[in-house]
């Protein structure tokens, strides 16, 4: 199963509570405060890994909850910090913070009666210390401005918070809460026996959308049944399903093209596009987003017109769909390839294509019979090198 988009809930660990304790020892009648501090909560950390190719792990584990910090103890002993939760995701993963409303945090049982509840945003922040009346009244507002709200001009998916593209790159998705201070931290000359301590700070939390956009140097784009999977099989060791009917490929396939001098290129075979793909017809958005990171695009045309489509109309339709989805895709270098040249009618269609579409010279190949494949591999290597140089 291939998963390239998944919604998850993440929550960092809460900080441990500070301890209220006093020093007790023989022959010492009144020892001072000795409550330890609470431990820090664990954070939820994302790490890019080039050994992964989809988000299947998050599909089976949509709730990511880190370990909580331990509470402080007497004799000045601090609590253990919670262990960070490190989640590996494939390179090319985009992380979106989904918009969420605020929710009310109920009063803790050990808080003073009458304390006012505070609002907790989707980030999970709240005042670290709350106390109504008494000797100490401290309120530290840790909420960030605009938390839980998508900024102006953001995507309908929410706010984009991370783009993990490099192997080993890490991003702290949810920061663990700080541990509360023990009562020993509040002793002063005027207040030598404080009988209160700080509660731990809640860890950040929220709903997120993980979206995978495959990182490949060459993207194969074309109509269904144009021969993209056959071409990928001919130039690499990838073995996608090949059959004589449309939409045989249902999710992107990756192939590695190897050369005699040990140079390598990554090629992405995108499932076939149809008219209206820019409006998500035929899951067009799910397919088109995988070519956004490609350095060059290969427009593969069925020059034999197997499905009773004119190749020149296919070419114009593909350019139209790419432009309507993202005009920046047309700025990428592209190579037009005429496939299925082993058919008799293909030569006639190729001449007519050059007449109807000016300034475009398709590269004739027959992927099924390895005709022109070596020349194709050379052309894409030159195009990638030129695009990388720019």
Q: Gyration radius, to the nearest Å?
A: 30 Å
- Contiguous low-pLDDT stretches (5 residues minimum) are 101-154
Strand element count: 16
| Helix fraction by DSSP (H/I, runs of at least 4) | 10-25%
Secondary-structure content class:
alpha/beta
Q: Please describe the biggest sheet, giving its number of strands, its sense, and whether it closes into a barrel.
A: 6 strands, mixed
Examine the coordinates and then state which fold CATH places here, giving the name of the CATH topology of the largest domain: Spo0b-associated Gtp-binding Protein, Chain: A
**So what's the CATH class of the largest domain?**
Mainly Beta
Tally of alpha and pi helices: 6
Q: Secondary-structure blueprint of this entry?
A:
Blueprint: E1 5-11, E2 44-49, H1 56-60, E3 63-65, E4 85-90, E5 93-97, E6 103-104, E7 119-120, E8 159-164, E9 170-174, E10 205-212, E11 218-222, H2 228-235, E12 253-258, E13 264-269, H3 284-288, E14 296-302, H4 311-325, E15 334-339, H5 344-356, E16 363-364, H6 373-389
Parallel strand pairs: 1-3, 2-4, 11-13, 11-14, 14-15, 15-16
Antiparallel strand pairs: 1-10, 2-9, 5-8, 5-10, 6-7, 12-13
